[in-house]
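Quick start: what a row looks like.
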Amino acid sequence: MIRPRTGDDPVALWASARVTGLLDGQGPKTRPPKYGSAAWQQLRGDDPQKAAAIITAAEMWRRYGDEDELLAWFREAARPRQSIADGRTLAELNALAKPKPPHQLRAAPGWPPVAVPGRPGWWRHYGPGGEQVDLPHNDRSGAAAA
């Protein structure tokens, strides 16, 4: 039976309601046979299970496409992958794990001043000659005066 995952798909909601309506009054364990199967073909044309199987198959096709394509996708998703660490030596992995030097804070031309870490209230400005100027304010005009 079709069960929409969310309430934001009106087609899935319609299909679910229609299948539920078709199977109303039948046992709670009743499942329509797979569309096109021998069991489906043996049902009478006016059997609600036949219509429920058709709607279910159409909805599955709308959501997931061709069954063979879906199975191929599952196979691809489940295939073993090469580990990221494979192909790298222990020395390379150790070099990658070493701490990197801290980034040097630099103000850039055309960008606003940058707060200086560890110095609350101080801002690094790009000075008129391209130098880095630390000032106790975030006023751009102050950088030109410094």
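That is the whole record. The radius of gyration is 33 Å. The first strand starts at residue 114 and ends at 115.
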